[in-house]
Design a protein that fits this description.
The protein has 6 helices and no strands. With 254 residues, the protein is mainly α. Helix 1 runs antiparallel to helix 2, helix 1 runs antiparallel to helix 6 and helix 2 packs antiparallel against helix 3. The two termini are 17 Å apart.
């Protein structure tokens, strides 16, 4: 009787977990898409496209989790031994993939600072102040979004080609604080400008984004471990006792 209660509980938990897998699929795809969209705004500050590999993998895992949830629900309710075995094998593969995502996430998170340090000076040197120029749009966007100016501070603009060519002793208007009216970007009025440089803030932002991927992968890997455990309990019980009740049969024997 206790064994039957345990197996019924395992099946109930497993069905519930499969519903969570469907929700997880949507969340993982959202996280992956968010990383892609956000990195697109900062892509001029790093050159290693492989940094996006964890996001690509996590979107693929999200799509696979939806299929896993469907297989798991059907296999659990019908108590298909083949279906449950397939479910466990796929879960193990996805679990291993998520571990790889976590490892890659930490590797590329450590490389973010090096990438930004290597690229940011080049991007600032390419700035020409026109909206049609991609590096210029990227710098203006970052300075407005992160409330920063220059690489380490606003004085870095004095070393750029744009500053020397404009000859008006000013920085881009994207350096102006939003609460300051009539800001012209003039270096003679430093109080109107963001005091902090963008380099450290870009690194911090990109590292935060990568941590979203890492935490999402870790969270759902833990849930999958519980799913694998419940599926193994059902499989083992099913193998030893072929005459125990189906979850929705109301007493009909398999």
């Amino acid at each position: 009787m206790m064994g039957q209660c345990g197996i019924t509980s395992s099946k109930t938990v497993l069905v519930f977990l499969n519903l969570i897998f469907w929700a997880a699929a949507g969340i993982l795809c959202y996280v992956g898409a968010y990383v892609f969209i956000t990195y697109d705004d900062y892509d001029h500050f790093f050159e290693d496209v492989y940094t996006l590999i964890p996001a690509v993998v996590i979107i693929a895992v999200g799509g696979l989790l939806f299929i896993i949830g469907l297989i798991g629900c059907c296999a659990t309710i019908r108590e298909s031994r083949c279906g449950l075995a397939t479910f466990v094998i796929i879960l193990i593969l996805v679990f291993v993939t998520e571990v790889v995502v976590v490892v890659l996430g930490y590797i590329y998170r450590a490389k973010v600072e090096e990438e930004v340090n290597h690229s940011i000076q080049k991007v600032y040197n390419e700035y020409n102040g026109t909206n049609s120029d991609a590096p210029s749009r990227a710098i203006d966007y970052v300075q407005r979004q992160l409330h920063c100016c220059g690489i380490t501070n606003y004085l870095d603009w004095r070393n750029t080609s744009w500053f020397n060519e404009s000859r008006n002793n000013s920085v881009p208007l994207s350096c102006c604080k939003p609460n300051v009216s009539n800001c012209t970007g003039s270096l003679s009025r430093p109080g109107d400008l963001y005091p902090e440089g963008c380099e450290a803030l870009v690194v911090k932002k990109l590292k935060e984004i990568m941590m979203y991927v890492i935490w999402a992968a870790l969270t759902f890997a833990a849930i999958q471990m519980l799913g694998m455990l419940c599926a193994c309990v059902v499989l083992c019980r099913r193998g030893r006792d072929p005459a125990y009740e189906l979850l929705i049969s109301g007493g009909t024997y398999a």
